[in-house]
Structure formats: C-alpha cells, structure tokens
Amino acid sequence: MAEQIPLCPVRSAAAAAPNCKRAAYFSVAGPGPGAERPSRYQLEDESAHLDEMPLMMSEEGFENDESDYHKLPRARIMRRKRGLEWFVCGGWKFLCTSCCDWLINICQRKRELKARTVWLGYPEKCEEKHPRNSIKNQKYNVFTFIPGGFVLAVTIMREATDEFRRFQRDKEVNSQLYSKLTVRGKVQVKSSDIQVGDLIIVEKNQRIPSDMVFLRTSEKAGSCFIRTDQLDGETDWKLRVAVSCTQRLPALGDLFSINAYVYAQKPQLDIHSFEGTFTREDSDPPIHESLSIENTLWASTVVASGTVIGVVIYTGKETRSVMNTSNPKNKVGLLDLELNQLTKALFLALVALSVVMVTLQGFSGPWYRSLFRFLLLFSYIIPISLRVNLDMGKAAYGWMIMKDENIPGTVVRTSTIPEELGRLVYLLTDKTGTLTRNEMVFKRLHLGTVSYGTDTMDEIQNHLVNSYSQTQAQASGNNASSAPPRKAQSSAPKVRKSVSSRVHEAVKAVALCHNVTPVYEARGAAGETEFAEADQDFSDDNRTYQASSPDEVALVQWTESVGLTLVNRDLTSMQLRTPSGQILTYCILQTFPFTSESKRMGVIVRDESTAEITFYMKGADVAMSTVVQYNDWLEEECGNMAREGLRTLVVAKRALTEEQYQDFESRYNQAKLSIHDRTLKVAAVVESLEREMELLCLTGVEDQLQADVRPTLEMLRNAGIKIWMLTGDKLETATCIAKSSHLVSRTQDTHVFRPVTSRGEAHLELNAFRRKHDCALVISGDSLEVCLKYYEHEFVELACQCPAVVCCRCAPTQKAHIVKLLQQHTGRRTCAIGDGGNDVSMIQAADCGIGIEGKEGRQASLAADFSVPQFKHIGRLLMVHGRSSYKRSAALSQFVMHRGLVISTMQAVFSSVFYFASVPLYQGFLMVGYATVYTMFPVFSLVLDQDVKPEMAMLYPELYKDLTKGRSLSCKTFLVWVLISIYQGGILMSGALVLFESEFVHVVAISFTALVLTELLMVALTVRTWHWLMAVAELLSLGCYVASLAFLNKYFDLAFITTVTFVWKVSAITVVSCLPLYVLKYLKRKLSPPSYSKLSS
Question: P-type ATPase C-terminal domain: from which residue to which, for each copy (predicted)?
Fold first, then answer.
C-alpha cells in the first residue's frame, strides 16, 4: 500500500519550518537555478511518491475508506534574497552571530587528542605536553563568591561549604602517595605529580591513580582482579592480564634494562575497549604484542588481588573516568521557575507604581531623583528574603526525608528540588535491579524434546551421575574387553541414553562457557596470604564466584547444584569436579568476551584427558539463531520462556580439529596486532568459526521482582503518573515483567509495535497504533529510532496517550534521549529511576533523578538527586514528602510576597495622602525587625504545615493528581494574595490615619502594631494542621515585639502605647483587616471544600 499512496508527514510548526526551507531549496521548481536539483526525499532509500501521504492524527481519518487520503499542499518555493535586501532582512544578524561564534571558537579552542608512544620509565622522552594527573571536581573559583549581599548569605554559605568539601576531597585524592619505579629504585610520588610514561606500583586495595597498561603482577598466574564499581557501576570483579613480555622478566628492575614502548590509541570515552601495541626493540627479532582492554588498569578502579606495576598512558582530563564524567546540569525546580516569573511581574509592578507616583507629582523638579526614591521605598514589593526562606525550607524538607523511619536509608543529594517530587507526570524506570532484584535463579533447561524445571533438577543430577560413571567405567576398562559395557548400554532404553548424553553435554557446556572465577578467601593473617596461594583450598564453604554478570554466576551455581562444580580457573586452564569427585582439567585456548554489539560470548578449550578441542558459545537468541544448525523449536521455546519472565541464553558448540584451530589462531593473532580497524578484523576472524554450530540447550534464568513493586506501581498509576519502562532486555521478557509487576494492568490491552526499518513501514504501523485506545505500548529500540527519525512529534504524541510504555533493547543514550523528548514535547516534569551505570545519563537528564543502591553498584545512586535502597520507598517519597514539599513551599513563597506587598501598599497610601511625598513610613529597626524577628519564625513555620496525614496521602494517591495542575501556586492564587495585600495594606494605613490624634508618631505606632498582629493572624489563617512549633513561633514573635516596645522610644510614644485608646484602635484596625478574610475562608470551605478536607473530616 505504501508504494501506491503518497506520504507527507504532518509535523509540528516548530519542526515544519526548517523542513519547508529545505524542501523549497531542493524542490523541482521549474526554470531557475534550483530546477535540476533532485527532490529531498529522492536522496533517501524510500520512493519519492511516499512524500504526499498524510499520517492520520485525527479520528475522522479512520472513518473514511483507506484510499480516501487528502494531499497536503506543498511548501511554497521562496527565492533567496540577495544583496542589501538580504542584509536588511536578517543578514546582519547572521554576520554578527558568525563573528561571535568565530571569537568563541578562538578563545575556547580545545587541544586535539592524539595517539601517543610512551617510553617505559622515561617521561621526559614524551614529545607532547600532557595534562597534570590531578582531579578537579570543583564547580567554582574564589572570585565566584565575592559578589552577593547579606540576603543571599545562606545560599552562598551553603554552596561555599559544599565547594570547600569538594576541594578537600580533591586535595585528599590528589595527595595520595604512590610508589614510582625509577632507575635508582622506588620513590614516593603524589597522585597529582604522576606523568605519562611513569612506572607506578599499586598495592592491593589501593586506588589506581591514572590509566595504565598492566606490565607486571606479584600473582603467579600473571593476572589480577580489579574492582570497577566506581567506574561502570558493576560490583563484580574484573580479570586483568599483564603483558606477557614484561611479566616474564626475572626481576622488577629489569624493566629499565629493556628498550620497550607502548603505542596507545588517542584518549576515548569507551571504557570497555582499548587498542594498542607493546614493542620491545632490543630483542631479535623485535617483540610485538597486541594490547586490549584486558591489559589495562583504568583510573578510579581498585586492585583487588596482588600488587601490580603499570606504565601510565593517560593522565588527568584524558583518563577514561574523567572523560565519562559529564558535568551534570544544575537542575532548577518548576516552582523556582514559576516564582521567577512572578518576581518579574512584581518588578514591573514596582516600576509602574513608582512611575505613577512621579506622574501624580507632576514631574516637578528633579523627578528622576523622586523616581529612584520611590523605587527604594517600594522595593519591599520584590521578595528578596524569599530565596533565603525557600533555601531553608528545602533544607528542612531534605532533613525530614532522611529522618523518615518509614523509608530508612534514603539520601537527599540535591537539596534544591524537593518540590519536584510533588509535580511528576512521567516516571521512567529501568527494569533489571530496579523493578527486579537482579538476583538470578536458574529455572529452566530446555533440550528441544525435553524440558527441566526446578522440580525436576534431581533428574539432571541422576543423568549426570550415570553419564560420568559410564565414562569412568569405559576409561578403566580400556585394556579389558569392551563387550560388557556394550551389553549394559544396550539393555538401557535408547531414548534414555540419548537424553543422558545430551544432558551431560549441555551441563558441561554451561560449566565451561563463562567468565566466572572461583575465589577462595585467604586463611591466616589478613593481607599476608596472596590470592594465588589461597586458591589451593578447595572447600565449598570457602568459595565464592566472581563474574561480570549475575546471570553467569547463577548458571555456574546451578551446575554446582547438579554435581558439576567449577573449582579453579586461571588465565590458561579451568578445573571441574564431577559428582564422583574426579577433577577434570581443561586448557583455555581462547576467550571471546560478551559485548553489547555481538550479544554473545565464547571460549575454546582443550580437554587435557582426550586432547579434544571444542568451541563453546552462548548468547541471546537473536544473535545465536543465525549461527546454529537448523532447528524447529528454538524460536518458539525462547518466546515461551520469555512469556514466563525468564532471561534466556542459547548454548551451542563446535568440535575443532588441531589443524582448524591452528589456522584460526594464526589469523586471530594477526588481526589482533593490526592498529586500524582491529575490532572489525577480529570480529570477522571469530565469525569464521561461528558456522553450523550444534545447538545444545536453552537456559532460563529468573530475575525476581523487588519487594512491594506491584502495590507501589499501582499507587503511582492511581496518582496520575504515567510509567515508562526502559530496558536493554528482550521484548518478551520486558513484556512479561511489565505484566507480572502490574505496570500494565491485566485488563489493559498491549500493542506490540512491529519491527520497522523504513519510513513507509513506520508510517503504516503508526496508523495501526492510532486506531488502538487505552492500550500499553511495547516497542524495541530499533523501531523507536526509525519512528523518531521520521515522525518524532507524531510518535511522542501517541505514546503520551498510553497508560504505560515499555521500550526494550534500549541503549543508555536512547534512555536519556527519551527523557529529553518527553520534556520538550509535553513540558511536564519527568523522573528517572535506575540502579546501574547505564542509567546515569537518564537520571541526569530527568528533572528529578532517583538512584537505587543495588547489585550493579552505587554509580546510579551517587549520580542521582535522591537515593533510595528499594523501589517501594518511591511511593512514600512522592505521595507524602513530594506532595508536602510542594504545597508548603507554595504557601511559604506566597506569604513572603504578601508580607512585602502589604507594607508597600501602606507606603503607597501614606505617600498619596501626603501629596505624593517620597518619605518613608517606617525607618531604621522597624523595617529590619518586620522582616526578621517579628514575622520570620511564624512565616517559616509554614514548612511544618500539612493538609492531610501521611497515612491518608498514601491511602488516597488520587490527591497527588491535583498537584500536577499547579493550582497551589498559579496566577490565580497570586492575584488573590495581591488583592488580599492591597486590601489589608489599605485598611491598616487608612484606619491608622483616620484614628490618629494630634501627633504623627501615633500613626506609626498604631499602623505598625496592627501590621505585626495582622501578619501573625494571617499565618494562623493559612495553617491547616497546627504543630506545636507553630504555636511557639507565634507566641515567641509576639513576645519579642511586646518586649521590644520598651526599647523603641525613638519610634513610639511609650506613654501612648500603654493607654486603652491605643489598644482598642489597634484591635479595631486588626479585626477589620482580618475578619472578612476569615469569613470568606469559612464560606469557601463550606460551599466548595477542597478534596483533602473531605478526607480529614
């Protein structure tokens, strides 16, 4: 259909503008310079006539016949303006912008990164200057803190304190001492003084200071383990291998007796790859060794075993860890942005009021002086103290969150955005480790004709015992007659024998094809026993498994449970223990690690007893289905397991002859030594082996759900929050977890977006999806990429209407991109939650990032704004603390504005009565006291207010929905407070002027006292639930004012304020200013009660 119908996507106005220009430029336009240019879309793989078919974005389109499409008018062709016309119509802007960009590029030109040759132990031989190996996490310098006034002292002190702590942490890290190997022996050197080319010795449990190539280790195996949790977020240890040429040297000092260098690629972001070569020139012939990621020691990792010696190749800003540390944006809450807009409006009101007063004066004399005086007199309209109150309030909210016993372990890392937790509309969550525990349990083994579950694992154990006992019997009876064994075998059923051998092969493949290393804790004095020596103790109780993936550990633990145990592994060999206790030794010839591109890993081993060479491989079904022999069950069973929520791995093998392996090894080593396109060449050689492999089995591992995930997700959904799950897992598994966790309710339909690769396919699939109503969307990362390329606006518009969205096979950059798309297209607040290093970019891109400390390390929790130990804590964090923080800050900020507006209104009335004189009503301490000791404590006590109890907020998450509309702080509420301020200011000042007797000083005494009392009563009017500290604040402020009257004889007539006349006049004015507001509030609560009042009653 797409070939017959013209296509023209409906774009948003913003997206259409640039496209129109390009369409005009490339269109066939009749005669003229553009006439012979091809159409824009003719350059793409789609046919040109797809350009005029509209993507239906309205219901009416579906009521007509499918052929009833309406062609949209093409963009008009506009001639390009030339000469003076071009300059006047915007060319001057283009020239100015170009000049500015050129100057900026000259000033901010970055140094080009280059590959380098590093001579061992001779940093002075380096031809280029390299950055100092010091860490700088500071955001500011000394001059940042010079400006700023007294009012901003709280904010500045907080930032300065944080900055000083960062400086101290940096200083501590940069001052760490390391042993540097020189011709004269070992010398101590600071971390910040390490240079490219230095030979650095790093002890066990010590941080690696810079990126190094691994030359030597104290471990006998020539390898060591490192912990990378602070680099990639993974808690499992990684194996690193020393350069064999330097590891073989007899002594440490021999590193200076050889003439060798390392060629390293230019500094890059990718922490999982490295290309380089090691060359020793003084041997005959020269020795060349290829270097890969397994020969590197990246900065910020920690040595977990032995002592290592490495040559520094990257320092400071060029290290992988620093290059991957993006400077996170300073997040500003929506409430702060709204207050900024209101403050701008107040500033305009200040200027307008001052201009009006000068105008009414008649611009007599030096009017500009009067204008500035009025600006100063009415400056209280601008709530300068609002910033301090809000900052202190945010600190109080953070303290309350961390002290909440119902969510222990919660940490507030960004104290500036607690109100954001109360305004969320979209929650984007990772799956593995966030919704699930990242605790893998082996659940299923499928051999094609037979499947084994948790209740039939004992059968596998029996098959394994029988198989190995027969193997031993055959081995011991090699010299005797072979007839009895044959007779015994023939008596057994044929199917039984077949299944036993297949089970044996499958379990053996799972036990051999992995990157797991058994680790045995050292017995004896801590730190004295080397890692390699501790390996000699093979007791099961003392053994733990280390691997880069929990799936790998689960598989090896399962093979141990059925009788085939991995007891030892080093760089070249692996030992398995059979059910009978026999030790089988396998020589590791090659290992091909798992990568996100290949989605599989492999190993070539030689059985020491039989000399058989076997290539084992396991991986995702999409990657393995093309390399295994034809079968009719793999795809179906993978789908079945995925629907059960299991993570599947396909295991296969291929037997190799000695000649086949030798041929492969020579080609493989040659590919690894190449400097250009090494990755592609190595992959091509490995792929030559991945053909017609024998399919052994399909494994299923379950990732268990986190505690209380279902009720938490249901609560969030009832609160009006739309939840998107972004995961790297396969589509079936992601869909199953979405249903089992109740992310998608059982009554909802699920629309699985079919894989699309072209624009026409995406168009048709989007139209099919448009017909669905109230159904969850499941889409893969590849299809998402195609849709966003051609129909970004339309896709986001459709997806946002879904109650839930599941994006599977998502890359980390895609996760962050989706967050930014939601922010741009909807303008709503987003929250991202994850637990691994791959979630950091998503967490930092979201308006509010939450990290979970899980199996994958602490990287996500450290990069997040809020850190929680479990997913279930999000419910209380949002429903209780997020809601309260927003409502409290909204009330606090509007009250602070009201406080300034009231006194400015009184000043305006006073000046108007006295012929628009620019004379201050209150002077000196009265103004300072009004904003501080007299009203500060009651106003700030609003941070303790709550409309409903926390239990009610958790029980009725629907209350959260109201907050997303922003009704607590809006133009409407702001105008109401402005009107209240004008009314009260006018009543207080005019009442005092009417009631004042002979002296002007009585006006000040009456109006100021009434003003203070009005503010205290207004706080009481605003409070919804009284806290004992609120009452204390009210009484304390009133007591301070009454006590200070004795010292304010400069402003007040002490004889007058002790009379009954003063008391009744002040009382009358205060009652008139407050009583109507109390009556109106009472009537409103009776006639139109808010939603929370129905629950509290």
Answer: 862-1089
Tens digit of each residue's pLDDT (9 = 90 or more) over 841-871: 889 899 999 998 866 566 678 778 899 999 9
Place of tokens 């002040």: 1066
Q: Assess contact for 553 and 547: CB atoms under 8 A.
A: yes
> What is the longest distance spanned by two Cα atoms in the chain?
134
Token pair for 301:
């990792």
Condensed to tens digits (0 to 9), the pLDDT of residues 591-648 reads 988 876 677 899 999 999 999 999 999 998 888 988 999 888 898 998 888 777 788 8
Q: Which residues pair with 438 in a beta bridge?
A: none
C-alpha dist (Å) from residue 165 to 170, 340, 471, 483, 534: 9, 30, 66, 80, 40
Q: What is the pLDDT of residue 216?
A: 92
pLDDT at 47: 40
CA distance 738 to 719: 18
Cα torsion angle, 887, 892, 894, 898, sign:
positive
The pTM assigned to this predicted structure is: 0.66
749 counts as catalytic? no
C-alpha–C-alpha distance, residues 635 and 427, integer Å? 33
Evaluated on CA atoms 870, 874, 875, 876, the torsion sign reads positive
d(CA 775, CA 783): 18
User: What sections of 914-999 are H helices per DSSP?
Assistant: 925-931, 936-940, 950-955, 961-964, 971-995
Q: Which amino acid is residue 27, in one-letter code?
A: S
Residue type, 295: N
Across 958-984, average pLDDT: 88
Strand, helix or coil for residue 446: strand
pLDDT (average), residues 309-330: 82
| Residue 763, C-beta contacts closer than 8 angstroms, at least 6 positions apart | 2, 7, 9, 50, 53, 55, 790, 791
Q: Return the closest-CA partner of residue 299 out of 128, 124, 127, 176.
A: 176
How many other CB atoms are there within 10 angstroms of residue 616's CB atom?
22
Mean predicted lDDT score pLDDT of the chain: 80
- Rounded-to-10 torsion of CA 832, 836, 838, 839: 10
The active-site residue, picked from 229, 430, 729, 839, is: 430
How far apart, in whole angstroms, are the C-alpha atoms of residue 1021 and residue 663?
88
Cα separation, 643 vs 645, in Å, equals 5
User: CA dist 597 to 809, 823, 830, Å?
Assistant: 12, 30, 30
pLDDT at 905 over 90: yes
pLDDT over 90, % of the chain: 33
Alpha-carbon gap, residue 611 to 82, rounded angstroms? 80
What 3-state class would DSSP assign to 237?
strand
Answer whether 610's CB lies under 8 Å from 649's CB.
no
Q: Which amino acid is at 327?
A: N
How many angstroms separate the CA atoms of 758 and 652, rounded?
Answer: 33
**Residue pLDDT, tens place only, 66-105:** 333 333 333 333 344 455 555 555 565 566 666 666 665 6
Residue 334 one-letter amino acid: L
Q: Give the C-alpha separation, 288 to 138, whole Å.
A: 42
Residue with tokens 């009954």: 1060
Contacts of residue 952, defined as CB under 8 A and 6 or more positions apart, other chains included, come to 959, 1092, 1095, 1096
pLDDT recorded at residue 1070: 92
What is the DSSP code (8-state) at residue 847? S
pLDDT class for 903, splitting at 50, 70, 90? Answer: very high
pLDDT of residue 470: 79
Q: Hey, what are 284's tokens?
A: 């005959």
- Classify residue 257 as exposed, middle or buried by CB count within 10 Å of its CB (0-12, 13-18, 19+): exposed
CA dist 985 and 930 (Å) reads 14
In this structure, the strands spanning 199-202 and 177-182 are antiparallel
Burial class (CB in 10 A: 0-12, 13-18, 19+), 68: exposed
